Amino acid sequence: MKPRIAIIGGGISGLTLANSLLECAHVQLFEKARGVGGRMSTRYADPFYFDHGTQFFTARSKAFKSFLAPLIADGLVAPWEGKVITFQPDKTINDRLWFEPHYVAVPHMNSLCKHMATHLTISLATEVAPLTTKAADGWHLVDTHGNALGVFDWVISTAPPLQTHRLFAACISSNNPLPESALIGCYTLMIGFNKPWDKSWMAAKVHGSPIEWIAVNSTKPGRNRAITSIVAHSNNQWAEEHIDDAMNEAEQFLRKEFESASGISTADADYFSCHPWRYALVGTPTELSPFIDTNQAIASTGDWCTASRIEDAWLNATRLHTTLSSFLLTRAQRQPKLSLMACDKI
Fold first, then answer.
1. Residue 344 pLDDT more than 50?
2. Mean pLDDT, residues 169-194 taken together
3. Start-end ranges of CATH 3.50.50.60 in the chain?
4. The whole model's pTM is what?
5. What homologous superfamily does CATH list for 1-36+117-181+286-346?
6. Does domain 41-109+183-283 have CATH number 3.90.660.10?
7. pLDDT reading at 346 higher than 50
8. Which positions ≥6 away from 228 have C-beta within 8 Å?
9. pLDDT tens across 251-270, in order?
10. Contacts for 4 with CB less than 8 Å, ≥ 6 apart
Protein backbone atom coordinates (compact mmCIF):
# COMPACT_ATOMS: atom_id res chain seq x y z
CA MET A 1 0.00 0.00 0.00
CA LYS A 2 1.42 3.35 -1.01
CA PRO A 3 1.78 6.02 1.70
CA ARG A 4 -0.58 9.00 1.65
CA ILE A 5 1.33 12.28 1.50
CA ALA A 6 -0.08 15.78 1.90
CA ILE A 7 2.02 18.61 0.48
CA ILE A 8 1.19 22.14 1.52
CA GLY A 9 2.11 24.90 -0.93
CA GLY A 10 1.67 25.04 -4.70
CA GLY A 11 4.84 26.91 -5.65
CA ILE A 12 7.83 25.45 -7.47
CA SER A 13 8.97 23.50 -4.36
CA GLY A 14 5.63 21.83 -3.71
CA LEU A 15 5.01 21.03 -7.38
CA THR A 16 8.50 19.58 -7.85
CA LEU A 17 8.19 17.40 -4.76
CA ALA A 18 4.67 16.25 -5.63
CA ASN A 19 5.67 15.17 -9.13
CA SER A 20 8.75 13.33 -7.87
CA LEU A 21 6.64 11.31 -5.41
CA LEU A 22 3.81 10.33 -7.76
CA GLU A 23 5.28 6.93 -8.59
CA CYS A 24 5.57 5.82 -5.01
CA ALA A 25 2.84 7.61 -3.04
CA HIS A 26 -0.70 8.90 -3.11
CA VAL A 27 -0.04 12.65 -3.16
CA GLN A 28 -2.45 15.50 -2.56
CA LEU A 29 -1.33 19.10 -2.74
CA PHE A 30 -3.04 21.94 -0.87
CA GLU A 31 -2.70 25.57 -1.94
CA LYS A 32 -4.40 28.45 -0.12
CA ALA A 33 -4.39 30.72 -3.20
CA ARG A 34 -6.77 30.39 -6.14
CA GLY A 35 -4.03 29.02 -8.37
CA VAL A 36 -0.60 27.44 -8.29
CA GLY A 37 2.61 29.38 -8.71
CA GLY A 38 3.55 31.03 -5.42
CA ARG A 39 6.15 33.65 -6.29
CA MET A 40 5.94 32.49 -9.91
CA SER A 41 2.37 33.75 -10.03
CA THR A 42 0.95 35.97 -12.77
CA ARG A 43 -1.48 38.85 -12.17
CA TYR A 44 -4.22 38.90 -14.81
CA ALA A 45 -5.80 42.30 -15.52
CA ASP A 46 -6.89 41.89 -19.12
CA PRO A 47 -5.39 43.00 -21.45
CA PHE A 48 -2.44 43.29 -19.07
CA TYR A 49 -0.53 40.40 -17.55
CA PHE A 50 2.20 40.83 -14.95
CA ASP A 51 4.77 38.34 -13.65
CA HIS A 52 4.61 40.20 -10.36
CA GLY A 53 6.85 37.89 -8.38
CA THR A 54 9.79 36.05 -9.93
CA GLN A 55 10.89 37.82 -13.11
CA PHE A 56 13.19 35.16 -14.54
CA PHE A 57 15.38 32.25 -13.51
CA THR A 58 18.81 30.91 -14.40
CA ALA A 59 20.18 27.37 -14.60
CA ARG A 60 23.63 26.49 -13.27
CA SER A 61 23.41 22.89 -12.08
CA LYS A 62 23.42 19.91 -14.42
CA ALA A 63 20.25 18.53 -12.79
CA PHE A 64 18.21 21.70 -13.26
CA LYS A 65 19.47 22.14 -16.82
CA SER A 66 18.29 18.59 -17.55
CA PHE A 67 14.88 19.41 -16.05
CA LEU A 68 14.57 22.51 -18.26
CA ALA A 69 15.81 20.95 -21.49
CA PRO A 70 12.52 19.34 -22.63
CA LEU A 71 10.57 22.40 -21.49
CA ILE A 72 12.79 24.62 -23.65
CA ALA A 73 12.42 22.21 -26.56
CA ASP A 74 8.62 22.38 -26.23
CA GLY A 75 8.61 26.18 -26.05
CA LEU A 76 7.24 26.32 -22.51
CA VAL A 77 10.47 27.94 -21.31
CA ALA A 78 12.52 30.42 -23.35
CA PRO A 79 15.43 32.81 -22.82
CA TRP A 80 14.54 36.47 -22.24
CA GLU A 81 16.91 38.49 -24.39
CA GLY A 82 17.43 42.20 -24.88
CA LYS A 83 19.08 45.28 -23.47
CA VAL A 84 19.44 45.60 -19.70
CA ILE A 85 20.54 48.87 -18.12
CA THR A 86 21.41 50.38 -14.74
CA PHE A 87 19.93 53.65 -13.49
CA GLN A 88 22.56 55.38 -11.34
CA PRO A 89 21.74 57.83 -8.50
CA ASP A 90 23.13 60.72 -10.58
CA LYS A 91 20.65 59.83 -13.37
CA THR A 92 23.32 58.43 -15.67
CA ILE A 93 22.48 55.19 -17.44
CA ASN A 94 24.89 52.29 -17.98
CA ASP A 95 24.51 49.06 -19.91
CA ARG A 96 24.26 45.98 -17.71
CA LEU A 97 25.65 42.66 -18.92
CA TRP A 98 23.97 39.32 -18.36
CA PHE A 99 26.61 36.59 -18.47
CA GLU A 100 24.22 33.62 -18.55
CA PRO A 101 20.82 32.83 -20.07
CA HIS A 102 17.85 34.27 -18.17
CA TYR A 103 14.76 32.13 -18.70
CA VAL A 104 11.05 32.80 -18.42
CA ALA A 105 8.00 30.59 -18.77
CA VAL A 106 5.81 31.14 -21.84
CA PRO A 107 3.35 32.77 -22.20
CA HIS A 108 3.27 33.69 -18.48
CA MET A 109 5.55 32.83 -15.57
CA ASN A 110 2.92 30.66 -13.92
CA SER A 111 2.55 28.65 -17.15
CA LEU A 112 5.39 26.43 -15.96
CA CYS A 113 3.66 25.79 -12.64
CA LYS A 114 0.36 25.04 -14.37
CA HIS A 115 2.19 22.56 -16.58
CA MET A 116 3.75 20.88 -13.55
CA ALA A 117 0.31 20.66 -11.90
CA THR A 118 -1.29 18.83 -14.83
CA HIS A 119 -1.22 15.32 -13.34
CA LEU A 120 -1.51 16.25 -9.67
CA THR A 121 -4.43 16.15 -7.27
CA ILE A 122 -4.67 19.71 -5.99
CA SER A 123 -7.08 21.47 -3.63
CA LEU A 124 -6.97 25.19 -4.36
CA ALA A 125 -8.23 27.99 -2.09
CA THR A 126 -7.64 25.62 0.81
CA GLU A 127 -5.68 26.69 3.88
CA VAL A 128 -4.67 23.76 6.09
CA ALA A 129 -5.15 24.34 9.83
CA PRO A 130 -2.27 23.67 12.27
CA LEU A 131 -1.67 20.01 13.03
CA THR A 132 -2.78 18.67 16.40
CA THR A 133 -2.04 15.06 17.37
CA LYS A 134 -1.28 12.27 14.95
CA ALA A 135 -3.81 9.44 15.24
CA ALA A 136 -3.03 5.75 14.86
CA ASP A 137 -4.08 5.85 11.21
CA GLY A 138 -2.25 9.08 10.35
CA TRP A 139 -2.64 12.84 10.30
CA HIS A 140 -6.27 13.98 10.12
CA LEU A 141 -6.07 17.29 8.29
CA VAL A 142 -8.74 19.98 8.40
CA ASP A 143 -8.86 23.40 6.82
CA THR A 144 -9.11 26.66 8.75
CA HIS A 145 -12.92 26.43 8.53
CA GLY A 146 -12.97 23.02 10.18
CA ASN A 147 -13.67 20.98 7.04
CA ALA A 148 -12.05 17.54 6.90
CA LEU A 149 -9.38 17.21 4.19
CA GLY A 150 -8.39 13.59 4.60
CA VAL A 151 -6.01 11.30 6.48
CA PHE A 152 -2.33 11.22 5.55
CA ASP A 153 0.77 9.28 6.58
CA TRP A 154 3.03 12.27 5.94
CA VAL A 155 2.56 16.03 5.92
CA ILE A 156 5.12 18.16 4.08
CA SER A 157 5.14 21.95 4.12
CA THR A 158 6.75 24.08 1.43
CA ALA A 159 5.29 27.25 2.92
CA PRO A 160 7.56 30.00 4.31
CA PRO A 161 9.28 29.06 7.62
CA LEU A 162 7.06 31.18 9.87
CA GLN A 163 3.92 29.63 8.39
CA THR A 164 5.45 26.16 8.67
CA HIS A 165 6.23 26.78 12.34
CA ARG A 166 2.58 27.66 12.93
CA LEU A 167 1.44 24.59 11.04
CA PHE A 168 3.73 22.22 12.96
CA ALA A 169 3.70 24.04 16.31
CA ALA A 170 2.12 21.18 18.26
CA CYS A 171 4.52 18.51 17.03
CA ILE A 172 7.83 20.08 16.05
CA SER A 173 10.79 20.03 18.45
CA SER A 174 12.35 23.26 19.70
CA ASN A 175 15.73 22.37 18.18
CA ASN A 176 14.42 21.98 14.63
CA PRO A 177 16.53 23.60 11.90
CA LEU A 178 13.72 25.75 10.53
CA PRO A 179 14.64 29.42 10.89
CA GLU A 180 11.99 31.49 12.64
CA SER A 181 11.81 33.96 9.79
CA ALA A 182 14.30 33.59 6.98
CA LEU A 183 12.38 35.54 4.36
CA ILE A 184 12.11 39.28 3.85
CA GLY A 185 9.54 41.39 2.04
CA CYS A 186 9.16 43.30 -1.21
CA TYR A 187 6.58 45.54 -2.87
CA THR A 188 5.61 45.16 -6.52
CA LEU A 189 4.21 47.89 -8.73
CA MET A 190 2.28 46.83 -11.85
CA ILE A 191 1.81 49.47 -14.54
CA GLY A 192 0.01 49.04 -17.87
CA PHE A 193 -0.21 51.23 -20.97
CA ASN A 194 -2.39 50.53 -23.99
CA LYS A 195 0.48 51.18 -26.40
CA PRO A 196 3.65 49.36 -27.43
CA TRP A 197 6.91 49.80 -25.50
CA ASP A 198 8.97 52.45 -27.28
CA LYS A 199 12.34 52.32 -25.50
CA SER A 200 15.44 50.25 -26.31
CA TRP A 201 15.76 48.47 -22.94
CA MET A 202 13.74 45.62 -21.46
CA ALA A 203 14.88 45.71 -17.82
CA ALA A 204 16.76 47.96 -15.44
CA LYS A 205 18.57 47.70 -12.13
CA VAL A 206 18.11 50.85 -10.03
CA HIS A 207 20.76 52.10 -7.60
CA GLY A 208 20.19 54.57 -4.77
CA SER A 209 16.39 54.31 -4.72
CA PRO A 210 13.66 52.40 -2.86
CA ILE A 211 12.91 51.00 -6.34
CA GLU A 212 15.44 48.28 -7.14
CA TRP A 213 14.30 46.55 -10.31
CA ILE A 214 12.16 47.46 -13.34
CA ALA A 215 11.09 44.90 -15.92
CA VAL A 216 9.07 45.42 -19.08
CA ASN A 217 7.11 42.19 -18.94
CA SER A 218 5.65 42.71 -22.41
CA THR A 219 9.14 42.27 -23.91
CA LYS A 220 9.33 38.67 -22.71
CA PRO A 221 8.82 35.79 -25.17
CA GLY A 222 5.19 35.02 -25.96
CA ARG A 223 3.81 38.23 -24.44
CA ASN A 224 1.50 40.76 -26.08
CA ARG A 225 3.80 43.44 -27.53
CA ALA A 226 0.91 45.65 -28.63
CA ILE A 227 0.68 46.86 -25.02
CA THR A 228 3.20 47.71 -22.31
CA SER A 229 3.24 45.82 -19.00
CA ILE A 230 5.81 47.01 -16.47
CA VAL A 231 6.75 45.44 -13.13
CA ALA A 232 8.81 47.39 -10.61
CA HIS A 233 10.14 45.87 -7.38
CA SER A 234 11.09 47.79 -4.27
CA ASN A 235 14.33 46.97 -2.52
CA ASN A 236 13.97 44.62 0.41
CA GLN A 237 15.31 46.92 3.09
CA TRP A 238 12.69 49.55 2.33
CA ALA A 239 9.97 46.90 2.16
CA GLU A 240 10.92 45.41 5.53
CA GLU A 241 10.70 48.84 7.14
CA HIS A 242 7.32 49.60 5.52
CA ILE A 243 5.65 46.20 5.07
CA ASP A 244 2.86 47.12 7.51
CA ASP A 245 2.28 50.62 6.10
CA ALA A 246 -1.15 51.52 4.75
CA MET A 247 -1.22 50.22 1.19
CA ASN A 248 -2.21 53.53 -0.40
CA GLU A 249 0.71 55.30 1.33
CA ALA A 250 3.27 52.71 0.19
CA GLU A 251 1.80 52.70 -3.30
CA GLN A 252 1.89 56.46 -3.77
CA PHE A 253 5.42 56.74 -2.40
CA LEU A 254 6.76 53.99 -4.65
CA ARG A 255 4.90 55.39 -7.63
CA LYS A 256 6.77 58.68 -7.28
CA GLU A 257 10.06 56.86 -6.78
CA PHE A 258 9.45 54.81 -9.92
CA GLU A 259 8.79 57.94 -11.95
CA SER A 260 11.89 59.63 -10.54
CA ALA A 261 14.15 56.65 -11.21
CA SER A 262 12.87 55.72 -14.68
CA GLY A 263 11.69 59.04 -16.09
CA ILE A 264 8.40 57.32 -17.03
CA SER A 265 5.21 59.15 -16.06
CA THR A 266 2.35 57.02 -14.78
CA ALA A 267 -0.22 59.82 -15.04
CA ASP A 268 -1.72 58.33 -18.21
CA ALA A 269 -1.31 54.67 -17.22
CA ASP A 270 -4.28 52.49 -18.14
CA TYR A 271 -3.63 50.16 -15.22
CA PHE A 272 -1.82 50.60 -11.92
CA SER A 273 -1.64 48.32 -8.89
CA CYS A 274 0.62 47.51 -5.94
CA HIS A 275 1.17 44.15 -4.27
CA PRO A 276 3.11 43.47 -1.04
CA TRP A 277 5.10 40.24 -0.71
CA ARG A 278 5.70 39.64 2.99
CA TYR A 279 7.89 36.60 2.26
CA ALA A 280 9.73 37.55 -0.92
CA LEU A 281 13.18 36.02 -0.61
CA VAL A 282 15.85 34.74 1.75
CA GLY A 283 17.54 37.65 3.49
CA THR A 284 20.83 35.87 4.10
CA PRO A 285 21.67 32.79 2.00
CA THR A 286 22.14 29.67 4.11
CA GLU A 287 23.33 26.09 3.74
CA LEU A 288 20.62 24.07 5.49
CA SER A 289 19.22 20.67 4.66
CA PRO A 290 15.48 20.22 4.20
CA PHE A 291 13.78 19.39 7.50
CA ILE A 292 12.46 15.87 8.04
CA ASP A 293 11.17 14.19 11.21
CA THR A 294 10.60 10.49 10.50
CA ASN A 295 9.07 9.88 13.93
CA GLN A 296 6.35 12.49 13.48
CA ALA A 297 6.19 11.99 9.69
CA ILE A 298 6.48 15.68 8.93
CA ALA A 299 8.91 17.53 6.68
CA SER A 300 9.60 20.89 5.10
CA THR A 301 11.60 22.31 2.23
CA GLY A 302 11.83 25.53 0.28
CA ASP A 303 14.21 28.30 -0.61
CA TRP A 304 14.82 28.89 3.11
CA CYS A 305 17.35 26.05 2.90
CA THR A 306 19.70 28.00 0.67
CA ALA A 307 18.60 31.01 -1.42
CA SER A 308 15.59 32.29 -3.33
CA ARG A 309 16.48 31.41 -6.90
CA ILE A 310 13.97 29.16 -8.64
CA GLU A 311 16.76 26.66 -9.19
CA ASP A 312 17.50 26.61 -5.45
CA ALA A 313 13.86 25.88 -4.61
CA TRP A 314 13.81 23.08 -7.20
CA LEU A 315 17.07 21.58 -5.91
CA ASN A 316 15.91 21.70 -2.29
CA ALA A 317 12.71 19.88 -3.23
CA THR A 318 14.69 17.15 -5.00
CA ARG A 319 16.98 16.85 -1.95
CA LEU A 320 14.00 16.26 0.31
CA HIS A 321 12.65 13.73 -2.17
CA THR A 322 15.95 11.84 -2.04
CA THR A 323 15.93 11.73 1.76
CA LEU A 324 12.26 10.84 2.06
CA SER A 325 12.29 8.21 -0.68
CA SER A 326 15.32 6.54 0.91
CA PHE A 327 13.45 6.31 4.21
CA LEU A 328 10.28 5.01 2.55
CA LEU A 329 12.24 2.47 0.51
CA THR A 330 14.00 1.14 3.61
CA ARG A 331 10.67 0.90 5.38
CA ALA A 332 9.12 -0.85 2.38
CA GLN A 333 11.89 -3.44 2.35
CA ARG A 334 11.01 -4.23 5.95
CA GLN A 335 7.33 -4.44 5.04
CA PRO A 336 7.17 -6.34 1.74
CA LYS A 337 3.48 -5.58 1.25
CA LEU A 338 4.31 -1.94 0.54
CA SER A 339 5.23 -1.36 -3.11
CA LEU A 340 7.60 1.59 -3.03
CA MET A 341 10.47 0.49 -5.19
CA ALA A 342 10.04 3.50 -7.50
CA CYS A 343 10.94 5.81 -4.65
CA ASP A 344 14.65 5.54 -5.25
CA LYS A 345 14.33 7.46 -8.51
CA ILE A 346 14.85 11.18 -8.94
1. no
2. 87
3. 1-36+117-181+286-346
4. 0.93
5. FAD/NAD(P)-binding domain (3.50.50.60)
6. yes
7. no
8. 192, 193, 195, 196, 197, 216, 218
9. 999 999 999 999 999 999 99
10. 25, 26, 28, 138, 150, 151, 152, 153, 154
